[in-house]
Design goal:
By secondary structure, the chain is mainly beta. 2% of the residues lie in helices and 46% in strands.
Length: 708
């Protein structure tokens, strides 16, 4: 057994030389050259680190004829680092072959081979059968941590074609954006071939029959912990099944559509078993989620519900239905879907109202579940299948399925969730965020509705104005009136009409400036005067005229930077200087000249990120770099380089979400994803993903809104 290291992505052919000669000529050892040396025996092909992120333009197809592993995950992080394209060069679309043909023989009784493909992107194939990958008889292939995309078949199997007596296992992979004119936009499996799919996502594929996958006259097949979304067809949006037995376990099918029958699944003369799965939010002329035939059942078409399942419509045209779903919702209704999924909207590929795919952690996209919703902790543990593929690599293939589609713990809350996604024990309560919708709804946490407010009111701040341990909400009307919403256990309790102020005064922040446990409000006049409103039990008590600051200075935040129990004020000059005003009993005591910082750095928030009792400052550079300034006794001590985030991510707040004594950082992506950086000792400890919330909802603040 040998390992061949590819050192060039150029499309070089072997010219008859030795390994040393082929490595030395041209630009190094190419994929084609490595395959020629690995054509007999059992071998492994890897790629040099310098090739990471690159594409091998093959200008044709590769043939794999021996026991072989091709590993493109160079950094071993579970994501692909190498792409194989059937095109001739970047920027052209000229392929007229598939990408890979796998098998030693075209004969049913011929030589068997075992092939592993890991960490690869297979793309741009164009052929009549199997645009991406074609498995010959007796080939057993495992695809892991890979992506199969943008492949086309003029007949069957845009991404894959298994025409007879081959075996395919797909793990931690994405099959997306492929097309076939006849069967199986993502994959076509037939003639005693078999499929096992685990922890994978099939999305945005197109075909006449089986937009996602089509399986016909095949061996028993299984789909586990997998998600189907945005696939389209004439018949069978996500799947078209014929003369096959398929087990669908802990999987999610939503957002698929078909012009005729079975927006989710079309099953003809087949046996379909659903276990702990969600099939809802799909669309078809007949059978939005399930159709057992075209106009009537064809042959002994059966559907069995095992474990616990959620569906969105009544199955039609099945000869036999065994068992009943645990929940049947109106899968066309957004509110009903929101009882299952955390994020619901029109699928971007089909327009169908559905759960939304998102980057929720892990190597494939998933649909996050609503905390406390119909699918959360609602499955059947006893119905979990055995881990026959040992997806957690602990050598125990007899244990119950241990991981979900994101490779997180499969049973996180005592009872398994329904669908591919398992909600984990979160580092922070979802009640720590307050949201405001474009339609004027206000909500906390997992969008628990607490009221509606006209848009002539604005949320100015969130803080504990009544010292009861629950965060409250500070509102201001366009005419100047200020109101607090007193909150209790994440819900509106009562409101307090506080006071009014002319529009020449602006609310700049909140903090307990007098150390009495009630957050106070800091105001600044447009000419520079600074005043605090002392608050008690949610209402205004008195104001303190603090000082005057020239208009070249701006208030950039508040926090207790000296650990004395009274919040202080951060000022930043337009040229970069940073100063804190030390406050005591609501009055200005002294200022601390902290440092100068380039104007390419912006203050993004404050909090006690190292748990030492003094609030610190979090900065973000124009290039995305995030740094914390550790503060002590009101002075700068040192900085911690935390991490970097692209400009598509914005810091939306700070809060101790996991109650460990260290403040954490709340982020939101332009497309709605919410993430918390769990901080410890001023540095990033871990990232917690809270899924996607529709962009009609905006984060208005953070606080302990659900303290119980």
């Amino acid at each position: 057994m040998a390992t061949f290291i590819v050192t060039t992505l150029d499309n070089e052919f072997r010219n008859g030389g030795t390994l040393e000669q082929e490595t030395a000529d041209g630009n190094g050892l190419s994929v084609r050259e490595a395959l020629s040396f690995a054509s007999f025996g059992t071998h492994t092909i890897t790629f040099a680190p310098s090739l990471s992120g690159g594409t091998a333009f093959l200008d044709g197809s590769l043939r794999l004829i021996s026991n072989l592993t091709i590993d493109g995950d160079i950094d071993d992080d579970g994501t692909p680092d190498i792409a194989l394209s059937a095109n001739s060069a970047a920027g052209v679309d000229d392929a007229d072959t598939r990408v890979l043909t796998i098998g030693a023989t075209n004969t049913i009784g011929g030589t068997s081979i075992v092939v592993g493909l890991n960490g690869l992107i297979i793309r741009d194939g164009n052929y009549h059968h199997g645009g991406g990958i074609y498995l010959l008889p007796n080939a057993s292939v495992t695809l892991s941590n890979s992506i199969v995309t943008d492949n086309y078949a003029s007949i069957d199997g845009g991404g894959f074609n298994l025409p007879g007596r081959s075996t395919l296992t797909v793990v931690n992979s994405t099959i997306a954006g492929n097309a076939a004119d006849r069967h199986g936009g993502g994959m076509f499996v037939e003639n005693q071939s078999s499929l096992t799919m685990i922890n994978s996502t099939v999305s945005d594929n197109v075909a006449d029959n089986g937009g996602g996958i089509a399986i016909a006259s095949a061996g028993d097949s299984r789909v586990i912990n997998s998600t189907f979304a945005g696939n389209t067809s004439i018949r069978g949006g996500a799947m078209a099944l014929a003369d096959v037995e398929l087990e669908l376990t802990n999987s999610t099918i939503s957002g698929n559509s078909t012009a005729e029958n079975g927006g989710g699944i079309l099953s003809v003369n087949a046996t379909l078993t659903l276990t702990n799965s969600i099939v809802a939010g799909n669309a078809a002329a007949v059978g939005d989620d399930f159709a057992g035939g075209l106009d009537a059942p064809l042959g002994p078409t059966s559907l069995e519900f095992a474990g616990r399942n959620i569906i969105g419509s009544t199955p039609v045209n099945f000869a036999l239905i065994i068992g009943t779903p645990t929940e049947q919702i109106d899968g066309a209704d957004q509110a009903a879907l929101e009882t299952v999924f955390l994020a619901v909207g029109a699928n971007p590929d089909t327009g169908v109202m559905a759960g939304l795919l998102a980057e929720n952690g892990g190597v494939v996209q998933t649909m996050a579940l609503r905390p406390g919703g119909l699918a959360h902790n609602a499955g059947s543990n006893s119905a979990l299948p055995a881990d026959t593929k040992d997806i957690d690599h602990d050598t125990n293939s007899a244990e119950p399925l241990p991981l979900d589609a994101r490779n997180n713990t499969r049973v996180a809350g005592g009872t398994v969730d329904i669908g591919a996604f398992e909600r984990q024990e979160e580092i922070g309560s979802p009640g720590d965020v307050v949201w405001w919708n474009d339609d004027d709804r206000v909500a906390t946490g997992a969008l628990d509705h607490i009221g509606s407010v006209p848009d002539n009111w604005q949320i100015e701040a969130t803080a504990d104005f009544d010292a009861d341990g629950d965060g409250d909400i500070l509102w201001r009307h366009v005419d100047g009136l200020v109101v607090t919403w007193e909150m209790e256990n994440g819900q509106f309790f009562t409101n307090h009409n506080v006071e009014g102020a002319p529009d020449t005064w602006n609310i700049e922040g909140t903090g307990d400036f007098d150390g009495d446990g009630d957050a106070d409000v800091i105001w600044r006049h447009e000419e520079g005067a600074v005043v605090t409103w002392e608050m008690e039990d949610g209402t205004y008590v008195q104001n303190h005229n603090i000082a005057f600051a020239s208009t070249g200075w701006e208030i950039d935040g508040t926090g207790d930077f000296d650990g004395d129990g009274d919040a202080d004020i951060i000022w930043r000059h337009e040229e970069g200087a940073v100063v804190t005003w030390e406050m005591e009993d609501g009055a200005y005591v002294q200022n601390h000249n902290i440092a100068d910082a380039s104007t390419s750095w912006q203050i993004a928030g404050s909090g006690d990120f190292d748990g030492d009792g003094d609030d610190d400052i979090v900065w973000r550079h124009d290039d995305g770099t995030v740094v914390t300034w550790e503060m002590e006794h009101g002075a700068y001590v040192q900085n911690h380089n935390v991490a970097s985030a692209p400009s598509t991510w914005q810091i939306r707040g700070t809060q101790d979400f996991d109650s460990d004594g260290d403040a954490d950082i709340l982020w939101r992506h332009d497309e709605g994803q919410v993430v918390v950086w769990d901080m410890e000792g001023g540095s990033l400890l871990q990232t917690q993903n809270f899924g996607v919330t529709a962009n009609t909802w905006q984060i208005a603040g953070t606080g302990e809104f659900d303290l119980i």
